[in-house]
Amino acid sequence: MIRVLLAEDMSMVRGALMALLAYEEDLEVVADVERGDQVVPTALEVRPDVAVLDIDLPGLDGLRAAAELHEKLPGCRTLVLTGLVRPAHLRAALSARALGFLGKDAPARELAAAIRKVAAGERVVDPELALAALDTRENPLTPRESEVLRLAARGDSVSEIAARLFVSTGTARNHLAAAVAKTGGRGRVDAIRIAEEMGWLPTVGPDRSR
């Protein structure tokens, strides 16, 4: 019997997944949680073979939960299940030592088969997503351009970006324009969308040394 921990913040989706897996004679959902920060404490308590984690979890996102779970309970394999199927998420999931990555629209039979393979130590990745990740081009942005775009994504104005990075307003505007041009976006909003989907935006604070 393969013991499964399920992490999904939407109760209806979580219930549906539990019901689907209940039909599988060799799979048993031994725990279900709705927050990412509940994953590791619960896993340490129930000792599942596989953790099926959504990416967008409150408290701690599923990718960070996967990395922490690998560190604290390496015997538990992780399968990331998400509705936001993006190449950047796949790369992040693999970096977090997840063995599987599937979209939520995958058929129930495919999910059950993926859990079995992950439990056996096999890697399972949606083929179309894997091809999309291979086709993803390298980040064309400089670290400063990425940082400027990240600040713009959170709603900072050009003057606010300039103040945070200790540069002139003109310099900040030039960096932003260069970032838009390099992403191929039609404007700032489109450039932010493209950079987010490609995984080009940093998650740390600005580099003051540049």
Automatic annotation (TrEMBL):
Gene3D superfamilies registered for this protein in UniProt: 3.40.50.2300
4-aspartylphosphate sites (modified residues): 54
Domain of life of the source: Bacteria
Keyword tags: DNA-binding, Phosphoprotein
InterPro entries membership: CheY-like_superfamily (IPR011006), Sig_transdc_resp-reg_C-effctor (IPR016032), Sig_transdc_resp-reg_receiver (IPR001789), Tscrpt_reg_LuxR_C (IPR000792), WalR-like (IPR039420)
Domain Response regulatory stretches: 3-119
PROSITE patterns recorded: HTH_LUXR_2, RESPONSE_REGULATORY
Protein name, per record: DNA-binding response regulator
